[in-house]
Amino acid sequence: MLVIRIHVHFQIIQGVGESDPILFGAAITNPNGQLVFNGSQSIEGQSGEYKKYFYLVYDVDCNAIVGNQINGEVESITISSDTYIPFEAVNTSNTIDAQIEYSTIADGLWSNANTWYCGVPPNGPDILPITINHIVSVDDARQCGKINVNYLKSLIVNTNGILTLGQSSAGTATGHSNKYLWAQWGNIYIYGTLNVNGGISVGGKYGSNYYGQLNIEGNLNIDGNDGTQSGSGFGGITIKPITY
Q1: Which residue of 28, 46, 67, 143 is most buried, as measured by CB atoms within 10 A?
Q2: Angle at 35 between CA 62 and CA 7, to 5 degrees
Q3: Terminal-to-terminal C-alpha distance of the chain
Q4: How does DSSP classify residue 240?
Q5: Cα separation of 20 and 181, whole Å?
Q6: CA–CA distances in Å: residue 185 to residues 3, 4, 133, 154
């Protein structure tokens, strides 16, 4: 089975990020043929408001063949009792690509398979980049590469947790430094130990509003790009809009 589930979401795109998507109707498992999604969603607005979107999401089997294609077309949209036929246009197929990152699908522990797409908790100094879309907690020893914490989401290192980005690139162990923890609009809470072979950027400003939070009650070690000694290479912490 190439596509294991299809669902429709409604989302508001804001200046600093995206609202949490709202499921429209019910997801359809093992889809085949013509599909109908029924739901209710207020889309009233006024001039100057953020953009609002409905979009289709394919849950593709993690063992799907890279290079295969999937395609879907909207045949009609009914609002109240009025039916609208979308303007016919070329609908480009979506090609299945190789995995390019690890992404979360639910709040939970880093070590829990149900927290991650394809059910594989990431661990290793040279793995693919990680995107945190939820509230994720580390309660054991984990190693990874680059991390991005999205809008209003959180990365928490619990008291017993040890999270290390990269490792020493001395000698033959090259390519494991220059890792970055990015949380421009997200939050980082450290109660255990966070080691970064590279740097951290936390917080941002949009208009008159400030976003992002860094709370350190445990240990934060930043070892720069080389990772062999404290302060080596380029490393550091940036708390926007002020750099320390």
Answers
A1: 143
A2: 45
A3: 51
A4: T
A5: 22
A6: 32, 32, 11, 10
- DSSP characters over 44-83: ---TTPPEEEEEEEEEE-TTPPTT-EE------EEETTEE
Helices (H) and strands (E) in the chain, counts: 0, 25
Q: How far is CA 236 from CA 27, 197, 202, 209, 217, in A?
A: 44, 10, 11, 24, 18
- The token duo for 224 is 């720069």
Q: Give me the count of residues in the chain.
A: 244
Is residue 179 packed enough to be buried (19+ CB in 10 Å), middle (13-18) or exposed (0-12)? buried
| pLDDT tens, residue order, the chain (244 aa) | 588 889 998 888 766 556 678 899 999 998 988 899 999 988 776 555 677 888 888 888 888 899 998 888 888 888 888 998 887 666 788 898 888 999 999 999 999 999 999 899 999 877 899 999 999 999 999 999 999 999 889 999 999 999 999 876 555 555 567 788 999 889 999 999 998 888 898 988 777 778 888 999 999 988 755 544 444 444 556 665 443 3
Gap between the Cα atoms of 181 and 130, Å rounded: 10
Are the CB atoms for 242 and 203 separated by under 8 Å?
A: no
